[in-house]
C-alpha cells in the first residue's frame, strides 16, 4: 500500500474518535482529505474492499451522530464506487459546519457586547449617583475581563472625565496607551485630562510625544495651544496656533487663538 493510501486510511480511521470528542470539523475534514488521497491513487482489489468497508463505517458514524445531524440533517449515503458523490457531500458538510461556527461566533460576540454595555450602563449609574467606589469596582472588572480593549478604556476614561474624576480618567488612559502606544487620540485625551488637573508639565510631555508620531494633525496642535492658554505661555500658544493654521488655513478657531496669543504677547 502506498504512503498516500496509508495516510488516507489513517485519516478515515480517526473519524469515529474525533466525533466522540465532539470535534466535528476535524472529523469531516479527515473524511474529505482521506477521500482525496484515496481517489488520487490506484488501488488493488483487496485494498479497494478495505476502503469501501472503511467508508461505510465512516458514513454510518456521521449519520449516527446526533449533534452533527442537527447541523446537517440530510442522510449521507455511500455505496461502493460512489466515492466522488461522497466527497461532494463532505464539501457541503464542511460549508455547513463553517457556517455554524461563524453563527456561533457571531452570537458569542453579541452576547459579549451586551454584557459589556450592561456593565458600562451600571457603572455610569454609579457615577451619576456619585458612588465612586462602586463605579470603580465595575469599571476595573470590565478592564480585567477585556484587558486589551483600548476603545473600552477610552470610553471609561471619558465617563470619568465627564464626572470630574480626572485622576481615574488619567490612569485609565495611561493604561490604554500601554496597549496602543501609537494611538494619537489617546494622547489628545490624556493631555486634556492633565490640563484639567492643572498638571501642565506632564500634559506637555504627552503632547510632545504625540507630535513625534504625527506632526500633521491640526487638532493636535490646537489642543496643545489650549494647554498653553491655561498655562499662560503665550508665545508657545501662538506657535501651536500657527502650526494648526499651517496645516489647515481655514481653521477659524486656530486663527482666533493666534490673534488672542499675539494680543497677550503685545501687552
Characterization of this structure:
This protein has helices spanning 3-13, 15-20, 24-40, 45-64, 66-71, 83-128, 132-145, 150-162, 166-179, 184-196, 200-213, 218-231, 234-247, 252-266. Helix 8 (150-162) runs antiparallel to helix 9, helix 10 runs antiparallel to helix 11 and helix 13 (234-247) packs antiparallel against helix 14 (252-266). The protein is built from 14 helices and no strands. It folds into two domains: 3-104; 131-266, Alpha Horseshoe (Serine Threonine Protein Phosphatase 5, Tetratricopeptide repeat). By secondary structure, it is mostly helical. The protein is elongated.
Please describe the structure with a list of short key phrases separated by commas or semicolons:
mainly alpha, 14 helices, Serine Threonine Protein Phosphatase 5, Tetratricopeptide repeat
Blueprint of the fold:
Elements: H1 3-13, H2 15-20, H3 24-40, H4 45-64, H5 66-71, H6 83-128, H7 132-145, H8 150-162, H9 166-179, H10 184-196, H11 200-213, H12 218-231, H13 234-247, H14 252-266
Amino acid at each position: 500500500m502506498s504512503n498516500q493510501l496509508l495516510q488516507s486510511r489513517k485519516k478515515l480511521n480517526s473519524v469515529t474518535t474525533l466525533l466522540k470528542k465532539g470535534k466535528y470539523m476535524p472529523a469531516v475534514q479527515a473524511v474529505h482529505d482521506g477521500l482525496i488521497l484515496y481517489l488520487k491513487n490506484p488501488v488493488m482489489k483487496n485494498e479497494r474492499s478495505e476502503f469501501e468497508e472503511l467508508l461505510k463505517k465512516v458514513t454510518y458514524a456521521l449519520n449516527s451522530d446526533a449533534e452533527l445531524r442537527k447541523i446537517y440533517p440530510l442522510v449521507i449515503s455511500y455505496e461502493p464506487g460512489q466515492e466522488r458523490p461522497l466527497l461532494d457531500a463532505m464539501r457541503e458538510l464542511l460549508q455547513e459546519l463553517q457556517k455554524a461556527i461563524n453563527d456561533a461566533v457571531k452570537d458569542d460576540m453579541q452576547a459579549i457586547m451586551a454584557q459589556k454595555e450592561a456593565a458600562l450602563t451600571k457603572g455610569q449609574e454609579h457615577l451619576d449617583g456619585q458612588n465612586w467606589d462602586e463605579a470603580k469596582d465595575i469599571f476595573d472588572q470590565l478592564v480585567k475581563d477585556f484587558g486589551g480593549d483600548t476603545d473600552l478604556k477610552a470610553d471609561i476614561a471619558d465617563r470619568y472625565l465627564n464626572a470630574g474624576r480626572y485622576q481615574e480618567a488619567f490612569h485609565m488612559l495611561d493604561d490604554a496607551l500601554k496597549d496602543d502606544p501609537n494611538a494619537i487620540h489617546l494622547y489628545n485625551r490624556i493631555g486634556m485630562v492633565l490640563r484639567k488637573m492643572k498638571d501642565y508639565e506632564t500634559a506637555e510631555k504627552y503632547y510632545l510625544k504625540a507630535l513625534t508620531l504625527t506632526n500633521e494633525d491640526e487638532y493636535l496642535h490646537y489642543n496643545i495651544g489650549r494647554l498653553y492658554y491655561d498655562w499662560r505661555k503665550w508665545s508657545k500658544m501662538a506657535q501651536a496656533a500657527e502650526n494648526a493654521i499651517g496645516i489647515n488655513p481655514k481653521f477659524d478657531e486656530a486663527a482666533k487663538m493666534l490673534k488672542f496669543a499675539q494680543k497677550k504677547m503685545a501687552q
